[in-house]
Write a structure and sequence with these properties.
By secondary structure, the chain is mainly β. It has one helix and 33 strands. The strands form ten sheets. It has a five-stranded mixed β-sheet, with no helix packed on it. It has a four-stranded mixed β-sheet with strand order 6-2-10-9. A four-stranded antiparallel β-sheet has the order 5-4-7-8, with no helix packed on it. Strand 9 (137-139) and strand 10 (142-146) form a beta hairpin. The N and C termini lie far apart (97 Å).
Length: 440
């Protein structure tokens, strides 16, 4: 069970100028030049612990938790120093060490416990904080921190004891609102303390509703929520120099922002039937925690796909010709959405045809076209440049079927209906042309 320290007795010891620091890391000295005694006037026993801590960037000592660990942005330097530890040149009641260089941010201070298990040991107070730049340099990248020089003061209430004095009155404000992704200002300036000014109070915030006040520090702060919530409770904890504290909560309403379509880029404004068509897009969302889907109405079908990383690519094959206006809808998981559309013309595939000699007296016409379309084969005979050109139909056939024509009939050409087989090339004709086209 934790005990409150009754008193702190500090007896100065005289050390030889020939003192040698034991190596305990690399480049910084940390020591006590005084004998630390317990409430009974006895030197603190071997195994008593000195914590070396940094205040963090706010240069303010934050209260320790119920287990003796630092809170807020305070950082426990990677080593705890035990009186009489074999790794430290020290003995009962005092110690000194040669340790690693000081790298964390903020000011340096120390706390004293009479055991290594903070939750069950007596807390003997802490030193005043001191900037690293104020520490005496004793060698290359070496500084010396003396507990006796920077004091051992009971500035915080020992673990497990009841604070004295009147607690402050916390005021987190009534309510706040804003949009996800925006910086929202929070203020506890209306907090007060009967015995202290706000400048000496510590303000810590719970910004995620877990009732742990470790998300931010300061009397006025700004914070950004990356997802919306209909109503959320936030709170501030105000602590005075005696360790007294109070909590106040406020309501927070964060409104969803719909996503933004940054670009939508179709392959083109036209495509052939059966050809793969693609449209690519990019988007952003102030709510970085949101998830998203894209729904596209192609005009002859629709699909919904999940999208990530601020981009999407959609693909489709049209089976019918015509004019279409595809609609793209980008939606987040809070039903915020944005949409756009574009115009697209779907046409039949171009016909490719070829002609070749087929057997002794025939020619063969072949072509490729849309499989679901029928095609018409036509011909045109020409004798002289001034002839009147008239295309005549040979046959209507399904796409892709070969058509063969007799090439040796010589009964003349006069374009008169009913005459013998005008489809066949007479000897008097200089040229014959064939054409394949879609029937309608």
């Amino acid at each position: 069970m934790l005990k409150k320290a009754i008193q702190i007795l500090i007896i100065f010891c005289i050390f030889s100028s020939m003192r040698v620091y034991a190596q305990f890391g690399d480049t910084t000295h940390f020591s006590t030049r005084v004998v630390l005694k317990d409430q009974n006037g006895q030197p603190l026993a071997n195994g008593s612990v000195v914590q070396l801590l940094f205040t963090g960037t706010d240069n303010t000592i934050d209260p320790m938790d119920e287990n003796g660990n630092p809170t807020g942005d305070d950082v426990l330097y990677g080593t705890q120093f035990a009186i009489g530890d074999n790794a430290v040149s020290g003995s009962e009641g005092y110690f000194y060490a040669y340790i690693d260089s000081l790298t964390p941010s903020g000011k340096l201070y120390a706390r004293i416990f009479n055991g290594s298990s903070y939750a069950t040991s007596t807390y003997y107070g802490q030193t005043a904080p001191v900037a690293k730049s104020e520490l005496p340099v004793i060698g290359l990248n070496e500084v010396n921190f003396h507990i006796n020089k920077y004091g051992l003061t009971q500035t915080l209430i020992p673990i497990g004891t009841t604070p004295t004095g009147t607690p402050p009155v916390a005021d987190a404000g009534a309510w706040y609102n804003g949009y996800e992704g925006d910086s929202i200002s929070l203020s506890a300036v209306n907090s007060s303390d009967a015995e202290e000014t706000n400048d000496t109070l510590t303000f810590t915030w719970d910004l995620n509703g877990d009732e742990v006040y470790d998300d931010a520090t300061g009397i006025e702060i700004s914070y950004q929520w990356n997802d919306n919530s209909i109503t959320n409770t936030i709170g501030v904890k105000v602590t005075d120099s005696d360790g007294n504290s109070s909590v106040d909560v406020a309501q927070l309403i964060i409104t969803n922002k719909p996503p933004v379509l940054l670009s939508v880029t179709p392959d083109s404004d036209s495509v052939y039937k059966g050809e793969l068509f693609s449209v690519n897009g990019t988007y952003s969302d102030a709510g970085s925690a949101d998830t998203h889907t894209v729904t596209i109405q192609w005009g002859d079908a629709s699909e919904t796909v999940p999208v990530t990383d601020g981009s999407f690519s959609l693909h489709h094959q049209y089976t019918q010709k015509g004019s279409f206006s595809p609609v793209i809808v980008l939606k987040d998981d809070d039903n915020g959405q944005v949409q756009t559309s574009f115009e697209l013309t779907v046409t039949r595939s171009p016909i490719a045809c070829a002609i070749q000699k087929y057997g002794a007296s025939e020619i063969k016409i072949t072509w490729t076209a849309d499989a679901d379309e029928s095609c018409t084969v036509l011909f045109l005979d020409s004798s002289l440049p001034g002839d009147s050109y008239t295309w005549q139909q040979l046959s209507v056939l399904p796409a892709g079927i070969d058509f063969c024509v007799d090439a040796g009939d010589a009964d003349g050409y006069n374009n008169i209906a009913g005459d013998n087989d005008d489809r066949l090339a007479p000897a008097s004709v200089l040229m014959r042309f064939y054409r394949v086209e879609y029937t309608d």
